[in-house]
Q: What sequence folds into this?
């Protein structure tokens, strides 16, 4: 998932197909009017139906690295453990480290 896309009201009129494609790809978009956010589009998917808007947004914010786990858990109204469980059920990794960083951390921890 990418960061949130921003479209102007004019873009909405002229490029509605792109907005639809972004939603089909699972991406949120913000529509602005005169440069100010007017509304937010959220992909209509199984997570939205199952968990509601607030929790789905929290998952998307973690997935796009726009919120930390703790921030998103608070936003979702869950404790950290319950939120991590929600991430797992949504197919989103709670920890997103590149393999080389994990290897470096393990080497540091395992040094005698």
A:
């Amino acid at each position: 998932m990418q960061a949130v896309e921003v479209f102007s009201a004019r873009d909405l009129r002229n490029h509605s197909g792109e907005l639809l494609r972004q939603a089909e790809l699972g991406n949120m978009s913000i529509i602005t009017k005169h440069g100010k956010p007017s509304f937010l589009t959220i992909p209509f998917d199984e997570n939205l139906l199952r968990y509601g808007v607030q929790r789905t947004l929290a998952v998307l914010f973690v997935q796009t690295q726009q919120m930390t786990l703790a921030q998103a858990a608070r936003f979702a109204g869950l404790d950290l453990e319950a939120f991590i469980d929600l991430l797992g059920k949504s197919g989103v990794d709670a920890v997103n480290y590149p393999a080389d960083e994990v290897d470096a951390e393990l080497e540091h921890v395992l040094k005698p």
About this structure: The chain has a mean pLDDT of 85.
